[in-house]
Amino acid sequence: MHKPDIETLVRECLSQVLKRPIQAGTAVAREDDGSWDSLRHVELVFLLEERTGIRFTQEEITGIRDSQDIVHLVAGKHGP
Amino acid sequence: MDHSITVSGYYFELRPVRLEDAAFMISLRTDPELATYLNPTSGHLEDQQVYLENYFSTPGDYYFIVQGKTSGEAEGMLAIYGIDHRSQSAEWGRWILRKNSLAAVESACLVYRAGLEELGLKELYCRTVARNERVVSFHASCGLSHARDLPDYVRINGVSHDSVEQVMNASSWPSCRQHMEERARQIAALLNR
């Protein structure tokens, strides 16, 4: 997967879980988004795993602070 | 009160608080990041032990430790209290989990099982500081309905905060339980990888 594809995927997953549209190029941070709660966070992780076939560790899951962290995580696991 | 209720889930369980939990409880309740929206707690072990001794003799107050089911490792705590026998309702709160814990969903699920099934209550409600948006959102995501806004309901460190009351009742619990348990099962699978 190339980075633009990953960014699109992450945006789609976030939009589905947070139940609102997310514009391309918009970074979403947990700290700033009150709707990104603990239940939605795990729902997001499971959706990402389902869509990418990637598995995240507990440390990776709890370390996610924003949409860019997810993009980097997925990119790192998919390789160049 | 000195109760004996234990409720087990997929990965976590609730068990009664014991006197020897005092140090763990202090460690969470005095963590500035975790305790932002909690009433201040003394950092002295003796004070917490006195608090627990009083708690053990307080009827209608059920304090739990959230712990790993097989590891027995304490993950956090929560409580059911303020039982109104006429309306068969109670509040739950004092909910605090270790940083980076994945016990939120299952511990919430377990407290509803404790309150609505083990204690046979018709309603469990929680009151959350309105600014604590992620927790308010969490309860809504779990299926709780908004009951009412509580202006200036709590004072924490001398500052008044509005709160939000959200309710889980016995009639909506079965469908909410299904949703929450599915997520708890997935989290347990992840933690068991």
Descriptors for this entry?
heterodimer, A: 80 residues, Non-ribosomal Peptide Synthetase Peptidyl Carrier Protein, Chain A, B: 193 residues, alpha+beta, Aminopeptidase, eight-stranded mixed beta sheet, 5 helices, 33% helix
Descriptive account of the structure:
The complex is a heterodimer of chains A (80) and B (193). Chain A has 80 residues and is mostly helical. Chain A has helices at 3-18, 38-52, 58-63, 67-78. In chain A, helix 1 (3-18) crosses helix 4 (67-78). In chain B, helix 3 runs antiparallel to helix 5 (173-191). Chain B has 193 residues and is an alpha+beta fold. Chain B has an eight-stranded mixed β-sheet with strand order 1-2-3-4-5-6-8-7, sandwiched between helices. Classes of the chains: A mainly alpha (80), B alpha+beta (193). Chain A binds chain B through residues 30, 34-40, 42-43, 45-46, 55-59, 61-63, and chain B through 100-102, 104-105, 133-138, 141-142, 180, 183, 186-187, 190-191, 193.
Secondary structure layout:
The complex is a heterodimer of chains A (80) and B (193).
Chain A: H1 3-18, H2 38-52, H3 58-63, H4 67-78
Helix pairs in contact in A: 1-2, 1-4
Chain B: E1 7-8, E2 12-16, H1 22-29, H2 45-56, E3 62-68, E4 74-84, E5 89-97, H3 104-118, E6 123-129, H4 133-142, E7 145-156, E8 159-169, H5 173-191
Parallel strand pairs in B: 5-6
Antiparallel strand pairs in B: 1-2, 2-3, 3-4, 4-5, 6-8, 7-8
Helix pairs in contact in B: 1-2, 3-5
